[in-house]
Design a protein that fits this description.
The structure holds 2 protein chains of 2 kinds. By secondary structure, chain A is α+β, with helices and mostly antiparallel strands. Chain A folds into 2 domains: 78 residues, Arc Repressor Mutant, subunit A, CATH 1.10.10; 90 residues, Orthogonal Bundle (Arc Repressor Mutant, subunit A), CATH 1.10.10. Chain A has 9 helices and 6 strands. Chain A has a 3-stranded antiparallel sheet. In chain A, strands 4-6-5 form a 3-stranded antiparallel sheet. In chain A, helix 1 packs across helix 3 and helix 5 packs across helix 7. The longest helix of chain A has 17 residues. Chain A starts with a helix and ends with a helix. By secondary structure, chain B is mainly α. Chain B has 2 domains: 117 residues, no CATH class; 97 residues, Structural maintenance of chromosome 1. Chain E (Arc Repressor Mutant, subunit A), CATH 1.10.10. Chain B has a 3-stranded antiparallel sheet, with helices on both faces. The two termini of chain B are 67 Å apart. Classes of the chains: A alpha+beta, B mainly alpha. Chains A and B meet through strand 3, helix 4, helix 5, helix 7 and helix 9 of A and helix 2 and helix 6 of B.
Chain lengths: 183, 279
């Protein structure tokens, strides 16, 4: 006697709403032993489509391997009026470049990052560590045993990614930039 | 020059959209010098500005412009990061190599190496990451426009709710214990002085020939007593009343009355402590 999709949908919606971090399908399954996994997955997908279809202010997104209810970006002006906030300080281009190198080349050491960027990147790495966008992933077994860095779960959350495969490949950028430089 | 930093760039947190237009309107005489992320970034900009192909860089022209940029940086009294100078040297090296006639042997080979090859490879690679960084920037832009529900106040996040009456009692107990400790310390301070401790030890050694100093240390009941004991032992060693011996490295320390110290007594003492250890 397992729960039907229509029964599950409102419960899942309530749970995802309550969770302060993206909540994974596995966590939801643990909370809901009444539902079998296939029905649960189907209910999540149905819920996501409901949000899409109805022209709502919220959407159900897959982020960092979990589900999260977010406001739609097109309404940000009104939300900011209410919150009385302005967009917070963004990352510098130096930090973003460093983050891009780490995201595509992880795990990677500081000297390797600097080789690609052509500049000292110690400060950018420190900024990214402080913002918890990257984390140490062990040490490289070479002379000096430098620390290897990789992106964190926080990186996925802050950049709205479900996983790293959602980033375009480096080859995509190659085609893009080649077109630009030859012209 | 050896300044730690990314580049002569001091505007770490300035949003990109405020910087981009400046870069676009860059002209030789109204240069905003703080827009490049490093020598590769500067080179890419010069290549774009001159509308030349990255695969066939007119190295003399680009080198001239690159050096001109460094001179302007200098004129503005900006510290030039060492990476810019390394790149300047590289450009000049490539330029000089290209001026030389190719060795006859190399001309025969199908793959006569272009001196610019390595630089082109680095520029192309850097360009990819620069594009990736711009993509990340636009993603962050979108994410900044979305909001999630704020954190709920649960027991976990609210320590005021979390503390029970038992926690309060435990805190009270701990405070009482700390108070007791403090009182003991005050009494100890009044009772023992270094001179008294030395006298005490002298009396001890009048009675006994051999004292286990480690045990004495372990019996000390406060930091202060321990310290005084330590100083007293040092003093007795200094005046040659006692001698310290150790049966093994990191082992227990014994004090022997100096008058009794002769090779045989010492050997006996050591043997005895070893027996102690065996127990």
């Amino acid at each position: 006697m397992t729960m039907r999709i229509e029964e599950l949908k409102p419960i899942l919606e309530a749970l995802i709403f309550t969770a302060s971090e993206p909540i994974t399908e596995q966590e939801l399954a643990q909370i809901l032993p009444e539902a079998d996994r296939a029905t649960l997955a189907a209910a999540l997908e149905a819920l996501r489509r409901d949000y899409e279809a109805e022209g709502r202010g919220l959407e159900l997104r897959r982020i960092a391997g979990g589900y999260r209810i977010c406001t739609r970006p097109e309404h940000h002006e009104y939300i900011r009026r209410y919150l009385k906030t302005r967009p917070s300080a963004r990352l510098s281009m130096a930090a973003l470049e460093t983050l891009a190198v780490i995201a595509y080349k992880q795990p990677i050491t500081l000297p390797e990052i600097q080789e690609i960027r052509g500049v000292n990147s110690a400060r950018a790495v420190r900024t990214l560590l402080e913002k918890r966008l990257i984390e140490p992933k062990g040490r490289k077994p070479v002379v000096g045993r430098p620390i290897l860095y990789g992106t964190s779960r926080e990186f996925l959350i802050q950049f709205g990614l479900n996983d790293l495969s959602e980033l375009p490949t480096l080859e995509d950028f190659e085609e893009l930039t080649e077109g630009a430089s030859v012209s | 020059m050896g300044r730690e930093g990314e580049s002569p760039d001091r505007c770490e947190e300035i949003p990109l959209h405020e910087r981009e237009p400046e870069r676009a309107s860059l002209s030789p005489y109204t240069v905003k010098l703080d827009v490049f992320e490093g020598p590769l970034d500067l080179l890419l900009h010069l290549i774009k500005q001159e509308q030349v192909s990255i695969y066939d860089i007119p190295i003399a022209r680009i080198t001239e412009q690159y050096l001109d940029y460094l001179r302007r940086m200098e004129a503005l009294d900006l510290t030039i990061a060492s990476e810019y100078l390394v790149m300047a040297a590289t450009l000049i090296y490539i330029k000089s190599k290209m001026l030389l006639p190719a060795p006859a042997r190399a001309a025969d080979e199908a793959e006569a190496e272009d001196p610019r090859q390595e630089l082109v490879r680095r520029l192309l690679e850097y360009q990819k990451y620069k594009a990736a960084a711009e993509l990340l920037w636009s993603r962050a832009e979108r994410e900044q426009a979305t909001f999630t529900r704020g954190r709920l106040e649960t027991d976990e996040t609210n320590p005021e709710v979390n503390a029970t009456v038992f926690d309060l009692f435990r805190a009270f107990q701990r405070a009482m214990e700390r108070l007791k400790e403090r009182q003991e310390l005050v009494i100890a301070r009044e009772q023992i002085t270094l001179a008294e401790k030395i006298a005490e030890l002298r009396a001890l050694f009048r009675e006994r020939e051999r004292v286990d100093i480690t045990a004495l240390f372990e019996a000390a009941c406060s930091r202060r007593e321990l310290l005084i004991l330590f100083l007293a032992v040092l003093e007795l060693v200094r005046v040659a009343l006692i001698r310290l011996v150790q049966t093994e490295r990191f082992g227990r320390i014994l004090a022997l009355r100096a008058s009794d110290v002769d090779p045989e007594a010492e050997a006996t003492a050591l043997r005895m402590t070893r027996d102690d250890h065996a127990d």
